Backbone:
């Protein structure tokens, strides 16, 4: 079952549809998360349940700069990274996004459901 949820990157909100706020398994995180800046998508996280594992992608600008809620130098070139691992750790989902062009270039994130309409995404 695919769901969309609201994400925050630090204090920035993603657009969403209602969902579960208390996650008990990886299936509770499956869905699409979209961070919009104005009328444009900034981050798009797609997570899919595949057996007992989550797979998916994270699409984002190749380059950007952020300082709290201030964003600048956002490139028009988009890169899509594969979610190479995802595990539940305490009250959040910890996942690793790997660049297709370089399997050694990995970014780690924590996704935490805050309510039925909000979640946070933090680079770790």
Residues:
């Amino acid at each position: 079952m695919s769901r969309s949820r609201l994400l925050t990157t630090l204090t920035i909100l993603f657009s969403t549809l209602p969902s579960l706020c208390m996650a008990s398994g990886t299936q509770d995180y499956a869905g699409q998360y979209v961070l919009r800046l104005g009328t444009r998508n900034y981050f798009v996280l797609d997570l899919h349940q595949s057996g007992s594992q989550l797979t998916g992608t994270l699409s984002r600008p190749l380059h950007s700069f952020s300082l709290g809620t201030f964003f600048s130098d956002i490139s028009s070139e988009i890169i899509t990274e594969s979610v190479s691992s995802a595990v539940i750790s305490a009250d959040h989902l910890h996942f690793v996004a790997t660049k297709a062009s370089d399997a050694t270039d990995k970014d780690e994130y924590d996704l935490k459901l805050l309510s039925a309409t909000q979640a946070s995404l933090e680079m770790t």
